[in-house]
Amino acid sequence: MNHPILYTFRRCPYAMRARLAIQASGIIVEIREVKLQNKPIELLHLSPKGTVPVLQVSNEHLIEESIDIMEWALEINDPFNWLPRDFHIKNQMNCFLKKLDKEFKVNLDKYKYTNKFERQNPIHYRDKNLIVLTELNHKLETSKGINSEHLSYIDYATFPFIRQFRNVDPIWFDSMKLPFLKIWLYDLMNSDEFSSVMEKFDLWDPMKKPIYSNFSF
After folding, report:
1. How far apart are CA 98 and CA 106, in angstroms?
2. Helices first, then strands: H and E counts in the chain
3. Bridge partners, residue 63, by sequence
4. Are 17 and 60 part of one and the same domain?
């Protein structure tokens, strides 16, 4: 392996996390864009659960969770000081991100994918997430980042899910009185960093020449 291999899907918020951190670190990876409805056997052999992102660092080292990929990349190179150096702050960030993944994302799925949850009231789950949105708006009232004066690890790990939530009903979201959260969100959505990691790549084909990138802009 010349470079780590990243299995990714462009629109997956978990994969966005990984790509943003890889971009920040400057690490070059082989990009394998996959279609989740037709997962390549190579991915399933590596990671039977079949979710993305998956990072094959070497034949002996596989990373299957987005947060772990972020930390791996930033531990190698963190030029923008995304990772907190204080253990207690890092622990607080990770507790929030666990809540985001286990509660906010669950409610988001029931709000967004109405066909999968026909007996559920999507508005109920939309409104349950207002607690997290209000908390974030409060945190961003006095600083550029969620947990610091600059954008960091927690911002880029959270952003893809707030974006996904907003995109379910942009008109409703934009009508909400969450001014600091909306500034934070729209700045990230319109950033060069995000545009770069959202570049479209052809689906991976083992018969074609590999694609290498660090998602730089």
Report:
1. 12
2. 11, 5
3. 55
4. yes
* Beta-ladder partners of 211: 31
Do residues 110 and 120 make contact, with C-beta atoms less than 8 angstroms apart? yes
Q: Could you tell me if residue 215 is left (phi over 0), alpha (psi between -120 and 50 degrees) or otherwise beta?
A: left
The model's pLDDT over 58-71, given as tens digits with 9 standing for 90+, comes to 999 999 999 999 99
- CA–CA separation, 10 vs 8, rounded Å? 6
114: left (phi over 0), alpha (psi -120 to 50) or beta: alpha
Cα–Cα distance, 14 to 61 (Å, whole number): 20
Domain with 91 in it: 87-192
Rounded-to-integer distance, Cα 138 and Cα 117, Å: 31
179: preceding bond cis by omega (within 30 degrees)? no
Structure tokens at 116: 């999968």
**Do 173 and 165 touch, CB atoms closer than 8 A?**
yes
Residues 7 and 51 sit within 8 Å (Cβ to Cβ): no
pTM for the model stands at 0.95
Distance CA 67, CA 137 (A): 23
Q: What pLDDT does residue 158 have? A: 98
Contact yes or no for 126/187 (Cβ under 8 A): no
We report the CATH number of the domain holding residue 168 as: 1.20.1050.10
